[in-house]
Each structure stands twice: as C-alpha cells, then as structure tokens.
Design goal:
Blueprint (H helix, E strand, L loop, with lengths): L1 H6 L7 H22 L12 H19 L12 H22 L12 H13 L18 H13 L3 H26 L2 H13 L1 H7 L7 H19 L2 H13 L5 H21 L4 H25 L5 H6 L3 H9 L6 H18 L21 H14 L1 H19 L14 H19 L3 H37 L6 H8 L7 E5 L7 H10 L7 E3 L5 H6 L8 E6 L3 H11 L17 E6 L11
Parallel strand pairs: 1-2, 1-3
Antiparallel strand pairs: 3-4
Helix pairs in contact: 2-3, 2-13, 3-11, 4-7, 4-8, 5-6, 5-22, 6-7, 7-8, 7-9, 7-10, 8-19, 8-20, 10-11, 10-12, 11-13, 12-18, 16-18, 17-18, 17-19
C-alpha cells in the first residue's frame, strides 16, 4: 500500500490520514443515503436534522484533512510587507462587516424572498427529522443548509431581520479575504488589496450580504475553489488542490447559480491554466474527485427524488420549442439575431449599463458596475490581455457563463441571478485601477506622492460606492420593492398590539399577500391574523355589524381614503391616525385608526 502511495503521491501519506479520508467519505455516503433512502438501511432511517448537518461538516473536514498532504497550503513568512497586508486586509474586513451590519433591521425594513427562508426556519423549529438535501420550498428548490444556519442565528438573535440576515453578513465578509487570495494569485499583492477594498463596498455585494437569501453563499465557496485551484496550478501543492475540491463541492448546497457556474468554470478554465502554469493533471483530477465526493450527496438525492439539478432554471427557462425553432431556423430568419438582442445582450448589458429589471432584488437605476468605474472595468481587461493571459481567460469565461446562463431564462437581467459574477467584476475593476497606478509611475511627481496618493484614491472610490448605496440607491429601492401599500408594515406595527387584536386592512391594492403575513405572525408568535377587504368603501358597515366585545380593532386605511376614515370616526369616535415608525416611504404607508374595544355609535333617526 505504501509503495502505491509513493507512486500516486496524491493519496493519503499516513495510516491516520487514510482512516480520516475513509471515515469522511463514509460520513458523506451516509448523508446521501439518509436523504435518498435507496437501500433503506435501518440505522439511517429518520436521522435527526442536526446529525445530517454534522455529517456534512465532519465528513468534509475529515476528507480535507485526510487527502491533504503534510505540506502546508499557505506559507506565511513574517515579513513587514506581509504584516502590513494582513493588517490592511483585517481593516478592510472590519469596514465590510460594519457596512453589512449597520442599520440592518431598518434600512430595508421588509422581508423580500426571505419569506421563503422564514418558512424553512419555522419548519426546522417544529420538525426534527427533515431530509436536508431535498428542496426546502416548492419555489426555492435549494437544500436546507442555509435555513438551518439561519435557524441557529434566529435562536441567538431572535425572530427578526437580524436573525435571518446575519448568516449572509458573515458569508459576505468572508468573501473579502477569499477574493484577496484569488487576486493575489492571479495578479499582484497591491491588486489583491484593491480588490478586497472594492468588494467590501461594492453595492450589489453589500446589498445581497444584507438580505437573508442564500445567493450570497455562492461566491464565497466558488471564489475559494478558484483561488486554491490557481494556487495549486502555480505551486503544485496537494493541499491547495484538496481545498479547491472541497470548496467546489460545497457550492452545490446553496443557490443554483453557484451550483452550475463554478464547476463549469473549473472544467473549462482548469485545463488551460494548468498548461499555461505547467501544473499537474493529477492535481486537477484530485480537485474534481473531491468535488464529486463532497457535492455527490446532493446529486444522489436529486437523482433519487427525480428533481432537476436546477429547479429555478427548469421553471424559469425558455421552453424547448423556442430552442428547436432557433436551431432549425434559417440564418436569414432573424431568430438568431432576436436571441442575441433579447436574450444574450441584456445579461451582458446588466454588467455595465442595464439596471436590474427585477427591481425586487437589487433595483436602483444603475447596472452592477457604477458608471464612474467603467474605465477601470475595461482597463482591467486591457491589463489582463497585456500581462495576465490566464487571469483574462478566467474572467472572460466567468462573465460569459453567467451571461449565457441567464440568457436561457425568461427574465434574464435579474440581479439575484448574477451574484456569482460579483467577484469577477470587482477583480477587473481592481486590475484596471492598479494598471492606472502603474502607468502613472512614469511621472516623477507621481513617484514622489504614490505612497500617499494610492490609498487616498482607493478610499475616495470606496467612499463614493458607500455614499451611492446608502443614499440614492436604498432610497429608490425602498420604493421599488413596494408597488402598493406596505402590507408587511401592518404586521411590524401590529407586534405592539395586545394578543387577539382584530387587524383589518382596507385597501384596493391588487396584490395582497396574506399567506406571507400569516407566516410572519407565526415567526413572531403573534396571536393576530390580519384580514383584508376590498373595495374599502364597502367594508366599514360590514365590520361594524360584527364587532366582538372585549377586542381591540386596528383599521389600516389608505391615507387618501377619506370616505372610510370619515365613516370609522363617525361610527366609533374620533381617533388620531398614526403613520409607521419604521423606515417605509411615506406614500407607501397605511394610516392606522386604533380603537380600544369599540362600541358602534347609535345613528340618530332621521
């Protein structure tokens, strides 16, 4: 066995590591069978949720330890320049954490698609034997891993927006050093620091780090996979290849953008980089083996359950007849041009000029890259062409795969489906900014002030991003996510009401999401079930005839609904209407008329 291990140097090199790798593989196999139940092994039936999560973490950790060589993946020499970089990177991460945490519960005082994850958390709180690798929601066909992490945070911080969003904050912050590692491997240490600083303030990344959606997990594990794989190619260290495979396998447990883009990116870019950097094919093979081992339980479960690999893509994609017509159409028909203009071009434009067409997820009136950063974006491409051909190949493939994947969808410029590309956009901008500094080095004056000018310029650029995001962007976004009156604000305000209060919305808004409001009531353990009536002009009499004694009534009415406001005050007495204390645009707020155990007034006979 040892002789074989010597020839195949990527096998575990000690019996202890072989046992660890084997044990880790068995843990992951057990996790797959628990969810697939192909063999119906009695010991694995009805396995608790926490045990399944433990099997994933312990299994991945043991495989990582067992398959890694005794050679360290990261060599850190304690030089002054490296100490300075570590200090600056730590400072950047603290800034990134502050930006992602500040006013987290009030800046966007609204549960977006986070309602789906709230439902997952509620299920995890009441059910102890959920199969974690199946879809946690019929709409969001992702594993239960992210809601499980959120459930833990809700247990610490409470059932609120912070509890749902803190996992995303941590994922977003950890992506900063991950991108630093990738940029340092592909470019230069200064480019890496600039990239880390830009990602810390990059508005789309800050935004999705502040929402309780699992999209933000994709770039963390995907960038780590690419960073370690690139290091493996450059230095041919086994530990890097193993780390790359484990991180790539973990991309399969979150949003399906990472599930599809990063493995494809590794398969397409890996061989090219391997040849250019004279890496080892065995190393790439080891990465793919570890990817299959760690990500395999997801594929096993989906195959057994007969669920598509990408549920959202399957439901939102252009249908087969469209592609058949496109492939069979003659070149002169214009179908190919229509595909380019309506399907492929919008995702590409979303990188640089087209705002989010979904509004609900990121919104605003700018593309992912702010206009003043476009020169650096294109400058980064030029810098990569001139000096770094392998990084250029990675970034171009990254951009193309994201754009092409979105071109397969009906709604092809929704920012939530572009989170996988955020690090690549930042990487290009950082390379362009660093190339600009390098060009200025030919000027004697610049050489004298460069030490001070570079951090000042980077700080100004970062400040501009922060001012834009927390200023005009969030102001517009808070309006965009509320097409009508803010119904969720009704529930936020109702938290202060006594249990059993009758909450009645009088509004003619078309989209009423009562199931979401009921879900929030369950999440907050409220004994309140809101009701809605429309058109509002016909409601007041209907409700006054059914008043229950000993119960308070809270009527939420449109501010311009003078008819119902007048009727309610005449019927139950004058009260002062109040508006929301939360961060909700004034025009989207209901006026609250609150009556303590009201009694209808007797109308005088005419």
């Amino acid at each position: 066995m040892s002789a074989i291990a010597v020839r195949l140097k990527f096998l575990p090199d000690t019996w202890g590591k072989r046992i660890a790798a084997l044990t880790g593989g068995l843990c992951l196999a057990a996790l797959a069978e628990i969810n697939g139940e192909v063999f119906r092994i009695p010991l694995l039936l009805d396995t608790p949720t926490y045990t399944q999560f433990s099997l994933l973490i312990v299994g991945s950790g043991l495989v990582l330890y067992g398959m890694g060589s005794t050679q360290r993946a990261v060599r850190w020499s304690n030089t002054p320049s490296r100490q300075q970089h570590l200090f600056l990177l730590t400072l950047i991460m603290l800034v990134g954490m502050a930006l992602r945490t500040w006013n987290i519960q009030n800046a966007v005082h609204f549960y977006l698609d986070e309602g789906n994850f709230v439902g997952g958390v509620l299920d995890l709180q009441t059910k102890s034997h959920i199969k974690m690798l199946g879809p946690f929601n019929h709409i969001a066909g992702f594993t239960w891993i992210y809601p499980y992490l959120q459930a833990g945070m809700v247990g610490i911080f409470g059932p609120n927006l912070l509890g749902i969003r803190v996992v995303s904050i941590l994922m977003g912050v950890l992506t900063i050093p991950a991108l630093y590692l990738l940029a340092k491997t592909l470019f230069t240490p200064r480019t890496a620091l600039i990239a880390a600083a830009l990602l810390a303030v990059f508005p789309p990344h800050v935004h999705f780090s502040r929402l309780g959606l699992n999209n933000i997990a994709d770039p963390l594990f995907g960038v780590l996979a690419l960073a370690f794989l690139a290091r493996g190619f450059k230095h041919n260290r086994q530990a890097d290849y193993v780390l790359a495979g484990v991180m790539l396998g973990l991309t399969q447990y979150f949003y399906e953008g990472g599930r599809l883009v990063y493995p494809t990116l590794v398969l397409l870019w890996g061989p090219v980089a391997l040849l250019a950097w004279r890496g080892r094919f065995k190393g790439l093979g080891l990465t793919l083996l570890l990817f299959a081992l760690v990500g395999g339980p997801v594929y096993y479960t989906l195959a057994v359950w007969d669920i598509p690999l990408a549920v959202r893509l399957d439901r939102q994609r252009l249908q087969a007849d469209y592609w058949i017509r496109l492939l069979l159409a003659p070149a002169s028909s214009g179908d190919l041009r229509e595909y380019f203009e309506k399907s492929l071009l919008p995702p590409i434009k979303h990188f640089i000029s087209l705002p989010d067409t979904g509004h609900f997820y990121y919104g605003g009136d700018t593309a992912l890259t702010l206009p003043f950063m476009l020169p650096f974006f294109f400058g980064g491409m030029l810098a990569a062409v001139r000096q770094y051909l392998v990084p250029l190949g990675l970034v171009l493939l990254w951009l193309f795969l994201t754009a092409f994947g979105n071109s397969l969808l009906i709604y092809n410029a929704w920012s939530a489906r572009f989170v996988v590309i955020f690090p690549a956009l930042v990487l290009l901008m950082a390379a362009g900014l660093n190339a600009t500094f390098s060009l200025l080095e030919h000027l004697p004056l610049w050489r004298r002030i460069e030490r001070y000018a570079v951090p000042i310029i980077v700080a100004v650029v970062c400040a501009a991003h922060v001012i834009y995001y927390f200023g005009p962007h969030l102001s517009l976004y808070n309006t965009q996510i509320r097409p009508g009156h803010d119904q969720q604000d009704v529930m936020f305000r109702a938290q202060a009401f006594p249990p059993g209060t009758e909450v009645i919305m009088l509004t003619a808004d078309n989209d009423i999401w009562l199931p979401t409001l009921y879900q929030l009531a369950d999440f907050w353990d409220m004994n309140i079930q809101p009701r809605h009536f429309s058109p509002p002009a016909l409601v007041a009499y209907d409700q006054s005839a059914r008043l229950r004694h000993g119960v308070d009534y809270a009527f939420f009415v449109a501010q311009d609904d003078e008819e119902n406001q007048t009727w309610l005050r005449r019927k139950f007495g004058p009260v002062t209407g109040t508006l929301s204390p939360f961060n909700v645009p004034l025009e989207k707020q209901f006026l609250l008329l609150y009556y303590v155990n009201p009694r209808p007034r007797v109308e005088p006979e005419k």
